[in-house]
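Appendix B. Raw example, untouched.
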Amino acid sequence: IEEEETQVAKQFGVFGATLVTFFLAEMGDKTQIATVALAAKFSDPVWVVVGTTLGMLIADIPAVFVGDRFAAKIPLKLVHGIAAAMFAVMGVLALLNVGNLL
């Protein structure tokens, strides 16, 4: 996989490879669907994309900096365990339809 990643980075550059990877990973994501819906509703899709991109950056940049700061201090296995537990709890809550009770 690393060899393929290197070829993509060489072909598109680091920014292009990140852009393509992000687009493919998030395809069908709620944010992307909302962006398409907003672009269809308003007649200026460029500004809709700019706005949604800025919104994602505002939400993601603090998480990246916090994650970078604590990455060396917290074992990755612990992070994976906490994330798995959170997803399991959210899955059970979704199965029990708890969201509609709130």
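End of appendix B.
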